[in-house]
């Protein structure tokens, strides 16, 4: 009976340690919070930072680029002569990595094909060059609240802690509109 009692106490202790780790929290603030690090999310965060705005991207996965990288759909269709803005910068980075634009023509699906890990690395490098941009990985949206003074509070949860971010502007760049749903925004 004493052995069972010790096992129960050990299990309770372990549960308390796990609960304590999960209840750890961090709190920060930013002017623009982008939730989702897909192509639109990374472009929004980078552009905000380049405009002199304190920005943050919160992404669930360790990858940036969404469908182009994490989902492995790295065959981009489109106007290959349109090399402007963020797309142009990304395309130039791919050409530099592979040696030329012609080196991206490796299949019949697209004139721009690349390894997903290369795209992810390029997006991380572009983000890292922005002094006013922070990228945090591993947080799933849990709660979004708009306050009467027009600022927002985002709460995200990871395996080990909770992240609370106060922001003047929040951009939903999730794949399925997770932030809009949590905020109670009606959409179709």
Overview of the structural elements:
With 188 residues, the protein is α/β, with parallel strands linked by helices. It contains 5 helices and 8 strands, in the order H-E-H-E-E-H-E-H-E-E-E-E-H. The strands form 2 sheets. It has a 6-stranded mixed β-sheet with strand order 5-2-1-8-7-6. A two-stranded antiparallel sheet has the order 3-4. Strand 6 and strand 7 (152-157) form a beta hairpin. The longest helix has 22 residues, at 2-23.
Separation, N- and C-terminal Cα atoms: 59 Å
What is the share of helical residues?
25-40%
Number of strands: 8
Unreliable residue runs = 5-21
Question: What keywords describe this structure?
Answer:
188 residues, alpha/beta, six-stranded mixed β-sheet, two-stranded antiparallel sheet, 26% strand, elongated
List the helices and strands and how they pair.
Blueprint: H1 2-23, E1 25-35, H2 39-50, E2 55-59, E3 75-76, H3 85-98, E4 112-113, H4 116-128, E5 133-137, E6 140-146, E7 152-157, E8 162-172, H5 178-183
Parallel strand pairs: 1-2, 1-8, 2-5
Antiparallel strand pairs: 3-4, 6-7, 7-8
């Amino acid at each position: 009976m004493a052995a069972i009692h010790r096992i129960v106490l050990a299990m309770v202790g372990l549960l308390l340690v796990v609960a304590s780790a999960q209840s750890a929290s961090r709190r920060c603030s930013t002017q623009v919070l982008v939730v989702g690090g897909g192509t639109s999310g990374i472009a929004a965060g980078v552009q905000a930072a380049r405009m002199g705005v304190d920005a943050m991207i919160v992404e669930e996965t360790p990858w940036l680029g969404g469908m182009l990288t994490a989902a492995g759909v790295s065959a981009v269709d489109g106007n290959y002569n349109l090399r402007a803005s963020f797309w142009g910068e990304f395309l130039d980075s791919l050409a530099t990595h592979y040696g030329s634009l012609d080196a991206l023509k490796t299949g019949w699906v697209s004139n721009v094909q690349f390894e997903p890990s290369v795209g992810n690395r390029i997006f991380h490098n572009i983000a890292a060059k922005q002094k006013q941009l922070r990228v945090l990985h591993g947080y799933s949206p849990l709660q979004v609240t708009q306050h009467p003074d027009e600022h927002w509070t985002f709460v995200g949860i990871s395996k080990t802690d909770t992240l609370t971010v106060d922001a003047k502007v929040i951009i939903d760049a999730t794949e399925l509109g997770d932030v809009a749903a949590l905020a109670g925004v009606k959409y179709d």
